[in-house]
Amino acid sequence: MECFWAHGYEATSVRDLVHQTGITGASLYNAFGDKRLLYRRSLDHYLDQSVRSRVARFRQLPAEEAIHGFFEEIVERSVTDRERRGCMLVNATLELAPHDPEFRRIVAEELALLETFFRECVLAGQQDGTITRARSDDDLARLLLSVLLGVRVLARIRPQRAVLEGAVKSALALLVPGAKEER
User: Fold this and answer.
1) How many C-beta neighbours within 10 Å does residue 145 have?
2) Which of 25, 38, 103, 130 is the Cys-Cys partner for 64 at CB 3.0 to 4.6 Å?
């Protein structure tokens, strides 16, 4: 997973995988199948340990706290990633999903999971008055998903805290009830 995450699918060679795992090429193929299958398993492991785990943890919190905490963790993870690996899901979205129907489906399912999480938070916040009702839950969920993806892409190039927090802060300000939009 670390090889694929740091270098992407195409730039990671079987030789890199052999070196990283410490097993021979033949053993690698016997244990995991081909490189593509190993990537798929690595991505699934990443999704379980990172994306799905984060959603499950934050789903337990009150809406506004869940959204803010989620993004605080994303920013922190982004600025402390010395290798600038970004998010393996976002990396797969950009590298494989446009050209590979199986990975397009996997990515779409995971992005739908994230959008659903944000929608649930927005709906709960709209019901308890902590999130504006001026925009639909669908629109706000899609906004939050877009900000998440943007932050994770931006973190690969400019992982400065001020840059990432500024993007998040501006988006989260749109959730505040009674906030005026500047034009």
Assistant:
1) 18
2) 130
